[in-house]
Every structure is written in C-alpha cells, then in structure tokens.
Design a protein that fits this description.
52% helix; 3 domains
Amino acid sequence: MTPVSSDRARDVALAWERLVGEIDEVLRARALSPDRLVVLVPYAQLMDAGRRAWARVHPTGFSPRFESSRNWATSLQPFAPGPGDICMDMARDSLMAAALIDRVAPARADAALRSVMVSRLVEAARQLAPLAAARPPTKRLAWAEPLRTALTAGPQALQWEGLLASLALTWASTSAYATDVLWSSSAQPGFAADFLVVLQGFQADPLAAALVSHWGLNALSVPFELTSRDVGARLHACGDAEDEAQRAAACVIEHVNAGRAPVALVA
C-alpha cells in the first residue's frame, strides 16, 4: 500500500487538533469535566483516533468518551434483535420478509417472482431502517403514517411495488434497533453525559442529526474539515459504464501523482 503523504497526514492531525480545541471551548464555557462529554464519531475506526488526538493535547487527566452510535448504545444496554426486527443478517431478514409477503399475498406469486419480492423487500426495509432508527420508538408509527398514505395513492399498475414499499415501511417502523437505548432515560442529557459533540462524516447520518436536535443546547455538531487545500467534489458526465470506469481510473491516477494516497473508491 502506498504510504499516506506527509501533507495528508498533517491535514488529518490538524483536523483533530481543531476538534480538540472546540471540545476544550465547550468544556470551559460549560465548566464541565471532560469525562462528562461524549464525542459521537461517524465510524467506529475513529474512536481510537479521537482518543489518541485528545491524549496528544492532554496527556494527563480525564478524557471525553469517543463513541460510535452503536458502541455507545451497546455500552448502555446490549441488544438482541427479536424475531420481527431488522437484524441485517441476510438469512434471518429474508425469512421475515418471506413471512410478511405470505401474509398479504399467499400463493399468488410463482417461486421466481416470490424470490425477487423477498430480496426487494429486504433491500427496501434496510434502506428505511436508518430513517426509522432516527425517530424515538414511540414516534415511529406517526412518522410512517404520511409515507404510507402517499404510497396508497400510487397508480394501480405499480401494485407490487407499492405492496413491497408498504411492507418495508411497516417492518422498519415497527422494528426495534440497537440504538433505541439512545432515546431512553439512561442516555438523556445529565444522566449518561452532560454534553454531546457529533463529528460529521462524509455522508449524512439521520440518527446523529436527530440526537443533536434532541439534545438541543447540550449538543454541538462539527464537520471534520481537513484543510482549504481539499479540492472538493467534481462531477464527470459519463456515457456508459466503460466510460465511468476509465474516468474513475484517471481520477485515481491524478490523485496518486499529486501525492494523495491511498485513494478510496466507493462503489
């Protein structure tokens, strides 16, 4: 693997220093002990990186808790999915999807169509799961209701698609999630922690955004900005899949030649 360029490593170190500085400002303004603050990172791999960054600036004393949402939830209450919950295990989720389809369309579809429907239902439910988990469990049915109404207003020609979407919405809105404990009394401001800092990732995190709103004045959302040297996103119009692959390869070569490596490709 090509080593990370010194410029990139310096950018990352400076970004962590800025984050630690913002945390220090919060602690001073609120007269809080660091151990009463939770830093919610977007990826579990950043928990150790955050702890190391804090230790470089504050080698002694208490440290904030650097947690991913899943890790924080597990530390508060271990979670075991129930029979009807979305568990992100393909075999279990497929069995549940098949059972849901059998309830509304028993023996109406041939085996090939049924297999496709099961796969599509699992995919749709998993896409909705992060949005459902970003609502308190007591408010999920209310969140789903207007969406369900919109689905029933669709054209008759799309009855199978509408059926799968409705089933996915029902499944996602009635499922329990590992992070549900973050909505409970054991994770309220003043109990598990006094302040929440959410470190934004490259993609929007519905749960993190909802927790910032839930914690109100006791929360702060901060971007992980590397430096102004970052070029930012660029759009390339591609004629077909081959053109897309060639342009992606050209972009990778451009970054490597500029010393920005390793380069990650997201499919």
